[in-house]
Backbone:
């Protein structure tokens, strides 16, 4: 199998492969891979063989595990009947390289197809939350009654005399969005020991995300304004497998009901034709977990690390 350095142009081929699948994860998003420092995009390589895509990277020193060395692989993107064969190919490569095999973020449906040939370790903090698009668009049903109340409160208190505007992002909004996000970050507390790198990395991710909105049609972003001031910002994409991913969602909680309102209008605008909505993981943060659970997910894209020692 021939690996080469990955480029932005490779994501057209990735989309062609993903279009033939029902892959629900965010691992093959350009923003996800290029934005987060962990993936060390400059080291990333791709190989395409027999209708499957294989991606691997070298973690930066601060992320590397002391007990292992070598490439870390993403789950191969392929048809389900090719999953076992694809993992066996990765194992053969690792054996030749003389390193332990490690495939991160392997979805549960892949694990079920691998049988007992591999060690599969669930990473519960990185399971991605999946939602019915219609549920987010309507907040119908008893379980989402509180969300409807939040939307009603926001509408009653702020949506008068044209004071609230929900509109598409444009490049001229970039400075305003970054100022809003920086102000939002200043009001939050992070677990410095475990998540400081992620928190500091987020502004860099947002800058990249805005560039993608400005240059690639699968990405989109919207602003929520009150009396001309930004009070909410959302950014997402639709993957080739029909998944709507909400990558970024920020709002000023001083405005009652703003998050419920923003989530709903964003879904109504963009996710009507999505097969499913992925609002990503909670990273083990309790507040984020409660928030994501409050929107009543219909399932999870569970993630496993798949390993196999050298033979």
Residues:
């Amino acid at each position: 199998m021939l690996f080469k350095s990955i480029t932005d142009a490779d994501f057209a081929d990735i989309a062609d492969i993903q279009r033939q699948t029902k892959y629900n994860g965010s691992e093959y998003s350009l923003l996800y891979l290029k934005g987060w420092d962990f993936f060390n995009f400059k080291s990333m390589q791709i190989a395409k063989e027999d209708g499957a895509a294989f991606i691997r990277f070298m973690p930066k020193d601060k992320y590397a595990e002391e007990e292992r060395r070598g490439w870390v692989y993403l789950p191969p993107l392929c048809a389900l009947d090719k999953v076992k064969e694809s993992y066996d190919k990765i194992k053969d490569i690792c054996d030749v390289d003389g390193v332990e095999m490690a495939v991160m973020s392997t979805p549960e449906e892949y694990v079920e197809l691998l049988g007992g040939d591999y060690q599969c370790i669930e990473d519960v903090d990185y399971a991605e939350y999946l939602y019915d698009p219609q549920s987010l668009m309507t907040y119908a049903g008893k379980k989402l009654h509180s969300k409807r109340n939040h939307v009603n409160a926001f509408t009653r208190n702020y949506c008068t005399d044209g004071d609230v505007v929900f509109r598409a992002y444009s490049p001229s909004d970039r400075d305003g969005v970054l100022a809003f996000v920086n102000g939002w970050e200043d009001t939050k507390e992070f677990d410095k020991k475990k998540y400081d790198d992620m928190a500091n990395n987020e502004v860099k991710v947002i800058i990249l995300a805005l560039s993608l909105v400005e240059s690639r049609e699968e990405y989109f972003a919207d602003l929520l304004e009150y009396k001309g001031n930004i009070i909410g910002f959302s950014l997402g994409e639709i993957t080739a497998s029909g998944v709507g991913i909400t990558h970024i969602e920020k709002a000023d909680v001083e405005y009652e009901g703003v998050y419920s309102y923003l989530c709903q209008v964003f879904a109504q605008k963009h996710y009507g034709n999505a097969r499913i909505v992925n609002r990503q993981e909670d990273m083990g943060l309790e507040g984020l977990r409660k928030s994501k659970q409050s929107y009543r997910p219909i399932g999870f894209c569970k993630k496993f690390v798949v390993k196999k020692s050298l033979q």
User: Anything to note?
Assistant: The first helix runs from residue 10 to 18.
